[in-house]
Amino acid sequence: MIKLNYIIETKGALMETIEVKICSGTTCFVMGSSFLNELYELIPQKYGEKVSVTQSLCLGQCSKQDTHSNAPYVKVADTIISEATVEKVLAEIEKRVNKNE
Ligand code: FES
Q: The domain that contains 48 carries what CATH number?
């Protein structure tokens, strides 16, 4: 797995790239993480270098008591999104992008 971490300069200020990690562990896969695959194309198209998106090994959320049924999980910066959908992930990214601008 390749992890890219960019620092980009925007309007004279340094801005850290928002990292999105889509869990591809077994529980998340079984619970439908493949429906999130369109994010690998959507995110670069919409946000360019402001946001990076990578596949992740198990994010450790599924092993917590009573949380396995909330898969699939996606991590956006330091926020874990449960029962992740494309819409929920994009909404969290949008919130963070707007906060950085
Ligand atoms: S498989 Fe996704 S959090 Fe464990």
A: 3.40.30
Q: Give the number of the atom of ligand 1 that is nearest the alpha carbon of residue 59.
A: 3
Residues 6+ apart with CB under 8 A from 53: 20, 21, 22, 39, 40, 43, 44
For the chain, the domain total comes to 1
**Is there a domain that residue 1 lies in?**
no
Range of the domain at 59: 7-100
User: For the whole model, what pTM was predicted?
Assistant: 0.83
What confidence tens digit (pLDDT) does each residue in 85-101 have? 999 999 999 999 988 77
Residues with CB under 6 A from ligand 1: 23, 25-28, 58-62, 71, 73
Which is the closest atom of ligand 1 to the Cα of 71? 2
